UniProtKB/TrEMBL annotation, chain A:
Membrane topology: Multi-pass membrane protein
The ABC transmembrane type-1 domain, residue ranges: 74-254
GO cellular component: plasma membrane
Stated name of the protein: ABC transporter permease
Cellular localization per UniProt: Cell membrane
Pfam families with a match to the protein in the record: BPD_transp_1
Organism from which the protein derives: Natrarchaeobius chitinivorans
TrEMBL record, chain B:
Protein's name according to its UniProt entry: ABC transporter permease
Record domain ABC transmembrane type-1: where: 84-268
PANTHER family: ABC TRANSPORTER PERMEASE PROTEIN, ALKANE SULFONATE ABC TRANSPORTER-RELATED, MEMBRANE SUBUNIT
Pfam families (UniProt xref): BPD_transp_1
GO cellular component, one term: plasma membrane
Length: 271, 278
């Protein structure tokens, strides 16, 4: 029942079935429009004769899964992403918490945390190739560096903004430092940490993609390189679609995990 | 160790701490404490780097001096200044195009419900998706040209700017909109005087984040698509395994993106004087 003074936000939350169908039609319609536009370009051969039809891309994907070990390459990529991400979690969360709790530690570490953020990664990969080779190690290293920043910053934010009141209560009950950490700071932190993890996994995938296309010798990047050396755009696009698919689904999955775990945050937001 | 001596140690420590705190209170040291500690941390880091580099071969792990020397060599032999100017020109062209597209489209998406519903999933997917994955496609279609490089920079930052602008419109306080409505303000007036001022800090945040992405996009395009300018220099040094030349450019780019981000921050503070009142 929509009354006149209901805000648009509320209205959006209480969409009727009709509205939702309408939305879906609009969104799907735009998707079909994009595909049609692409097909038109492919048919006309503009701006390049090499633009493949959608059917050719699907075929290229099938060929690669059947013959060229696409799934194996995807598996290797996922492996590197998770190792890098895991290491970033191991280092990043404690570091963020320490920085949030102590001002001196924050001041000591923040030049480095910020430096990690502003490094132009595309530029440093050639140096990292010399240090780590072109295999799994460089992938893990870049995924680590990419995932590290949001994880540190979010756990830092959470620890720093722990309500003074809570800390004072702990102090007045003479709680030890460890007890305060475990029972006051950490529970308050968890939504922040999880938000950091979600951003971190997204950035880890980006890091992996960057390595794949710059190194371009092994793995998914190697596949792209092979196809583009043969000027077969359909193959290139099919691998790129796989990469972009990873980039969209992994953060989405992490978001699902987040929604499952942090059911109490919904109450806090006032819904 | 008994509990007794542990408490003694503890109280001595506490006393020492408070006495140090009192002594430096209000002094020059305390006022600049943040900067001093950060400087100290950076110095320690650089020293460790340099000491470690001494035990390593130069091509693999160059010391600070060598990195600086590479910069001088690049200045003399590789036309560093020209490369830098050209790189920046590419970057700014792509960045400005992204602002010209991203801000209006973000506003439009925030204001028009229909456009929002239609574009939202696609814009969000592109925002999350790794843009760099698409670079090989553009190489094959467009070839190694200036236009393709500008387009890559554009793609790298446009979604960041768009999403932030959109966020700003969407978070306009309900109360403000209702006031505008109850005074019978026209749609244009509401957008111009209510939504846009609220959106401006979000837009500048997008501009700031987009800047970092633009630097990354520019250098990626130069390393992968057309070996020119700064990316070309990086390529040529990396190909002969001289890491020092890569690191010198990396450090330069870091400095550039810090300066540019700070500049946008300053601009933000100049334009937005009403946030402080809130």
């Amino acid at each position: 029942m929509a009354t006149a003074d209901e805000s648009p936000l509320r209205q959006r939350l209480t969409l009727s079935m009709d509205d939702r169908n309408h939305q879906l039609i609009l969104q799907a319609g735009f998707g079909v429009f994009l595909l049609a536009l692409y097909s038109a370009f492919a048919y006309l051969g503009y701006p390049s004769e090499r633009i493949p039809s959608i059917l050719m891309i699907v075929e290229a994907l099938q060929v690669q899964i059947a013959e060229e070990g696409l799934l194996g390459a995807v598996w290797d990529a996922l492996y590197a992403i998770f190792i890098g991400f895991f290491l970033a979690t191991l280092v990043g969360i404690p570091m963020g918490i320490l920085m949030g709790v102590s001002r001196t530690i924050e001041e000591l570490l923040d030049p480095y945390v910020n430096a990690i953020y502003v490094v132009p990664y595309a530029a440093i990969v050639p140096a990292l190739i010399v240090w780590f080779g072109t295999g799994i190690r460089i992938r893990v290293a870049i995924c680590f560096l990419f995932a590290f920043f949001p994880i540190v910053i979010n756990s830092f934010e959470g620890a720093r903004t722990t309500p003074e009141g809570l800390l004072e209560v702990a102090e007045s009950f003479n709680a030890s430092w460890l007890f305060t950490m475990k029972n006051v700071v950490l529970p308050y932190e968890i939504p922040y940490i999880l938000a950091g993890l979600r951003m971190g996994i997204g950035r880890a995938v980006r890091g992996l993609v960057l390595v794949e296309i710059i190194v371009a010798v092994t793995g998914l990047g190697g596949l792209i390189q092979n196809w583009s050396a043969a000027f077969r755009l359909e193959g290139v696009i099919s691998v790129v679609l796989v990469l972009m698919f990873l980039g969209v689904t992994l953060p989405w999955l992490m978001g699902k995990v987040y929604d499952r775990l942090i059911w109490w945050d919904v109450e806090r937001a006032g819904f | 160790m008994s509990t007794q001596s542990l408490t003694t140690v503890r109280s001595t420590w506490e006393r020492a701490r408070t006495s140090v705190k009192e002594r430096i209170a209000g002094t020059w040291f305390e006022r600049n404490r943040g900067i001093l500690i950060r400087l100290f941390a950076v110095l320690v880091g650089l020293t460790i780097w340099d000491l470690y580099a001494r035990g390593q071969p130069d091509y693999l792990f160059p010391g600070l001096e060598l990195i600086f020397e590479s910069l001088v060599t690049q200045y003399r032999e590789d036309d560093l200044v020209g490369a830098f100017t050209n790189s920046m020109a590419t970057m700014f062209l792509g960045y400005i195009l992204a602002v010209l597209v991203g801000v209006p489209l973000g506003l439009a998406m925030g204001i028009s419900r229909k456009l929002d519903v239609m574009l939202n999933p696609y814009v969000n997917a592109m925002y999350v998706a790794p843009i760099s994955a698409m670079v090989p496609i553009f190489i094959l279609i467009g070839g190694p040209t200036f236009e393709v490089r500008v387009f890559i920079v554009f793609l790298f930052c446009v979604f960041e700017i768009l999403i932030d602008t959109y966020e700003g419109v969407k978070t306009t306080p309900e109360g403000l909109l209702q006031v505008a409505e109850s005074f019978g303000a026209s749609k244009y007036y509401t957008v111009r005087h209510v939504i846009f001022p609220h959106d401006l800090p979000y837009i500048t945040a997008g501009l700031r984040l987009g800047m970092g992405r633009a630097v990354n996009g520019m250098i990626l395009a130069e390393i992968l698509i057309e070996f020119v300018n700064l990316g070309g220099i990086i390529r040529s040094w990396a190909d002969v395994f001289r890491v020092s030349g890569v690191l010198s450019i990396v450090l330069m780019l870091m400095l550039v993106s810090i300066i540019l981000t700070r500049a946008i921050q300053l601009l933000e503070r100049l334009i937005i004087d009403w946030e402080a009142e809130k």
